[in-house]
Structures are given as structure tokens and as C-alpha cells.
Amino acid sequence: MRNLRAATAALLLLGFSTPADAAPVFSARSMFFDVANGTQRVAVGDVDGDNRPDYVATHGTLSFGVTLFWGEGDGSYGSKLTLTAAANPKDVVIADMNGDGRKDLVVSNSGAASVSVFPATGVRTFGARVDYPAGNQPASIAVGDLDGDGDQDVVIANQVVTGTVSVLLNVAGVLAGPSGYGTSSSTPIQVALGDLNADGKLDAVTANSSSSSISVLLGNGNGTFGTATTFASGNGTYSLALARLDGDTNLDVAVANNNVDSLNVMMGNGAGGFGR
Ligand SMILES: [Ca+2]
Ligand SMILES: [Ca+2]
Ligand SMILES: [Ca+2]
Ligand SMILES: [Ca+2]
Questions:
Q1: Which of 138, 201, 220, 253 has the fewest CB within 10 Å, making it most exposed?
Q2: What's this model's pTM, rounded to 2 decimal places?
Q3: CA distances from 94 to 2, 197, 234 (A)
Q4: 218, 224 in Cβ contact below 8 A?
Q5: φ, ψ for residue 11 (rounded to 5)?
Q6: How far apart are CA 99 and CA 152, in angstroms?
Q7: What residues have their beta carbon closer than 5 A to ion ligand 3?
Q8: 35 C-alpha vs ligand 4 centroid, how far in Å?
């Protein structure tokens, strides 16, 4: 018994817990859902309004589609629904685009230079897909109210050498545009929206793969953006996430660098600038 106590104390000192204290951090359970050839991106959200998260995946090598897996609330799904997409669907965002309280899907079509809206018409039903022109090779979508009129507008990163973002403004549920803005960089592969300079207007940040940088485009609050400013990040910047990371009120950014296997955390200065 004494030896057992001593051993337990030693384990506790080493930071181990006894079996009686042990609690699982993650349950070791995983599931695979069959999608289709060339599965691209996944979004998670409650699309059908039953308070259970659903999964939406884009796919597009042989057949171009978007598949919804209706979540059961325990991680699994009960049934699924595949909608036909335009060429090479890439990113997908869940958002109510026409203000009817039902969640719609917005999909960027890398092979069709377009963005599609799939409007929900009821519980697990969708109306005809509506396609809108975007830039070339639209890779990533972010949705937010750019012009302060209460509806969701769309910003797209176009993954081309002379990298641009496209803006499509929501006019009574119909997307207008696109308006193009340069990123002063090459192959922006992801875009995120956030208010970097605390003026109440959404700003756009892109992750630029070939330029190994991020670009900041400050929003004017009316759906237009100012000239891009770039900040060096790591080699092969592939994705980013905006969050408040260091305790002040400025938005910061975490960047994933594909070529150097690293993350870069860059602190915002509250004026749209980032340190490295
Ligand atoms: Ca659901
Ligand atoms: Ca809707
Ligand atoms: Ca708007
Ligand atoms: Ca702003």
C-alpha cells in the first residue's frame, strides 16, 4: 500500500492523474461520410433549423455538386441531399442571403468564374441555383454586411497571378456586381472579413499563397474597399483566421504557411496594420 501511495504521489508530481481522476479529453470516435470525387471544402451549421448542426461539402472532379448531410445531433447524419453545382465548386458558406430566415448556401465555382446561391425554399428543400459572375478562379468566400443595409454581401478571393477580390453586393436578395479590387499580390487563396480599425466597417484580409503575404483592404462602409496594403507572412501562406489573440481589442491574424510547415501569428495594430 505504501509503495502504491508513493507511486501515485510520484505520478501526480509528474503531472499524471490516477485512473480514478482520469477523464477523457476527446472521445476516440470518428466517422467517414462518403461524398464524391474531388471533395473540396466543408462548412458546418444548422441549415434546416432543427438546432442540430449539418455538414455541407463541395465536390467536383467528375460530377460537380454540393452535398448536405443532415446532422442527427450526435455527430452522425440521417440522410443527405446532393445539389448540382457549376464547374469545380470550391468554397461554401451557409448564410441567409434573402432574409427569409432560412439558411441558404453560397458556393464559389473555380472552373466557372462564378458564385452560386442555392436558396432554401423550405425544410431541406432548395430552389433553382442562381449563378452570378465572379473573378477568375474564385477560391474562397466570406459573407458579411459590407454596406450596412442589414443584408449579407459576398467577398471572393480569386486565386490568380494578379490576385483580386470580387465584391457582390446584396440588393433585395439578388447579388450585384462583381466589383474587383487588386490585392497587390499573387494567388490570394483565402479571404476573411473583420473590422480591423474599429470604425464599424468590415475590412477584408487575404492569404496570398505565391506572394507569401497577407493583404489588407480597408472597407469604406458602402461596399467599396480602399487600396490594398500587404504584409509579409510565411512562405506559401495558405490560409488565415482572424481573432483577438493578445488581450487588446485589436483583431489579430493567425496564418498557415504551406511551404515552411509553420503558423505565423501577426498582431494587429488597430489601424489595419500587422506586425510579423
Ligand atoms: Ca440541422
Ligand atoms: Ca434564405
Ligand atoms: Ca449589405
Ligand atoms: Ca474597418
A1: 220
A2: 0.88
A3: 60, 26, 30
A4: no
A5: -65, -40
A6: 9
A7: 145, 147, 149, 151, 153, 170
A8: 38
